[in-house]
Amino acid sequence: MNRPGLPDTRDEARALLVLFCRRMVDAHLAYYTSGNLSTRISTEPGVIAVTPSSTPYDTMRPEDIVFTTLEGEVVEGDLPPTSELPLHTLAYRDRPDVRGIAHVHSAAAMAMSVLGWDLPPILHGFISACGGGIAAAPYARGGTDEMATLTREPLRDRSACFLRNHGTLAIGPTLEHAFNAATVTEGAADAYLRARAFGPVPEIPADDVLRIRARFWEPVWAGAAGALTHGG
């Protein structure tokens, strides 16, 4: 991988997606066949690698990965691509800086999406991963162009958003960044729901949000050398 985190070949893309599918299940971000992942390929700017539809992640093989154009036309693969392909293709067409996408169905984030709640900037790591508090996109049926279109605004300057009554969509300059944003969003959503049971949840001051964002989140999207994908 010449560009850190971005596969150069289709074989590298296959291996990367299978690796993160395993991580998605291990982190309880998806169950059985729910959720989907994708990545760009550095040597093929008009092609993306995406997970197949209705295929269990624990038995998924590299050869199961599907390759499509940015318009959603399958160019390689024996299985159909995820039914939520529009979430991926629209983001890639709109945003050349988006090179990896993780759509997950994790418990706390799904609770937030059902309630239609935004998640305020309550934790340093959450701001570092997502750029600040995140919003819930309006409701639309899953798998539709409408649902994809409704994510444009909440993702304009963030790495994640909730999909109303659905789950989380996370984007990044690499799949690793998108996956990290999805995992941190789940942890922050869980913390928020637990804390809210005791009363109002304090937010990080606005000037500190900007400082954390500038230190961690913005350099990753700018492709700065040595930029931290996540803290810890």
Summarize the helices and strands and which ones pair or pack.
Elements: H1 10-26, E1 36-41, E2 44-50, E3 66-69, E4 74-76, H2 85-94, E5 100-104, H3 107-115, H4 124-130, E6 136-137, H5 145-149, E7 160-163, E8 167-172, H6 175-196, H7 206-222
Parallel strand pairs: 6-7
Antiparallel strand pairs: 1-2, 1-5, 2-3, 3-4, 5-8, 7-8
Give an overview of the whole structure.
- The chain has helices at 10-26, 85-94, 107-115, 124-130, 145-149, 175-196, 206-222, and strands at 36-41, 44-50, 66-69, 74-76, 100-104, 136-137, 160-163, 167-172.
- With 232 residues, it is α+β, with helices and mostly antiparallel strands.
- It has one domain: Class II aldolase/adducin N-terminal domain (L-fuculose-1-phosphate Aldolase), CATH 3.40.225.10.
- The two termini are 24 Å apart.
- The model has no long low-confidence stretch (mean pLDDT 94).
Give a short synopsis of this structure.
The protein has 232 residues and is an alpha+beta fold. 38% of the residues lie in helices and 16% in strands.
